[in-house]
Amino acid sequence: MAEFGVQALRSHGLRVTGPRLAVLQVLAADGHLSAEAVAAAARHRVGSVSTQGVYTVLADLVAAGLVHRIEPAGSPALYEIQHEETHHHLVCRSCAAVVDLPCDHDLKSCLVPPATHGFADLEAEIVFWGTCPACQAAIGRADEARPRRRSS
Predict the structure, then answer these.
(1) Which of 41, 53, 98, 146 is the most exposed place for a label (fewest CB within 10 A)?
(2) For the chain, which domains are there?
(3) Each residue's pLDDT tens digit, 16-45
(4) Beta-bridge partners for 87
């Protein structure tokens, strides 16, 4: 995996550093992480790296196209390795779990607006929201434990 990181950084014109490698390795092992989660995991790999340093590395990796940043409404930004294929995300409203969903239809129909109104550098992201099976089960258990009101 370290070789992936070295090659990826060099092929995108970025200098190979311990923090950059650590961030790429963390995201390759487990995507959809907040910057704080990436920082904590990166520290286990390289020792001392500041949270601000990780934010800088993430910004560099996003700008280079190695890492993708998603911003689910009401949640901190999440980071993942940039995939070759287009995909969307499904986010649980209760626990914020994120699942990748492949885009199985014409890319243009969902990600390219019919008019740009002069905007440049357009980017689109589709996020679906729902309740994951684990949270559904927890809600069901909570409902079962709740005392029932008697009808008169």
Answers:
(1) 146
(2) 1-82 (1.10.10.10), 84-152 (3.30.1490)
(3) 999 999 999 999 998 899 999 999 999 998
(4) 102
